[in-house]
Amino acid sequence: AEAAAAAGGGGCSPAGGGSVPVLFCFSVFARPSSVPHGAGYELLIQKFLSLYGDQIDMHRKFVVQLFAEEWSQYIDLPKGFLVSERCKVRLVPLQIQMTTLGSLTPSSTVFFCCDMQERFRPAIKYFGDIISVGQRLLQGARLLGIPVIVTEQYPKGLGSTVQEIDLTGAKLVLPKTKFSMVLPEVEAALAEIPGVRSVVLFGVETHVCIQQTALELIGRGLEVHIVADATSSRSMMDRMFALERLARTGIIVTTSEAILLQLVADKEHPKFKEIQNLIKASAPESGLLSKV
């Protein structure tokens, strides 16, 4: 807050209480809202996403600027800025388009297995196939030393993860009621993994828990790879439109074989033969990928 004051402040007198009014500006829009006292850059970004998510092009880089009365114009958000008084901020897209390359390395990747539970078995299309592919992905994660985070949606009513999926060595197996996997415990687990950059995400349902998880993860700056042959819904229409929407936001929709071979990258990799054997034991063609 002292840095903000030195740069010209936020505009008005300090606000009392637990929240501070902030005017959030983007393009031609300006929407008043509030953030907790002491909020920093990350919370401001989250608020911009909640207010303007449909208008923000996730392929671009942005800069957050603060209106400084001293200069009567916007300045780049000062380093270490914390909201302590009423202010006006704006999100400015840079002109350089960002290309999502989708590179994967085991040391910077984590696998998310979402709600592969027993009660979903009769309802989810091609559930047997996505179980087989999910198990193959988890075997690959163990071979390559990749952390695995697993959630179960209301397991008291919907049952635990299906027995075919071996969760041995999973970093976290967590019950939830929220649709997104991005829970405080999951964020804490991610913070414990040094250098994590990419999330490989699979499970059910594509248009609900998978979609909401993916959008929250990219909102936090992580690159998301959704495994199309390990992800399904009750309705193929819901699945198809969810994957199309997610691809348009910059999320990478890919396949399990592509993921595993990208992670080893070279036939001289010490685990290549074992990964190759996993791929050779792939599930039969089910028609699932024709529904992408």
Automatic annotation (TrEMBL):
Gene3D superfamilies: Isochorismatase-like (3.40.50.850)
CDD domains registered for this protein in UniProt: YcaC_related
The Isochorismatase-like domain, residue ranges: 109-257
Domain of life, per lineage: Eukaryota
Family to which this protein belongs: Belongs to the isochorismatase family.
Protein name in UniProt: Isochorismatase domain-containing protein 1
Organism of this sequence: Chordeiles acutipennis (Lesser nighthawk)
Gene label: Isoc1
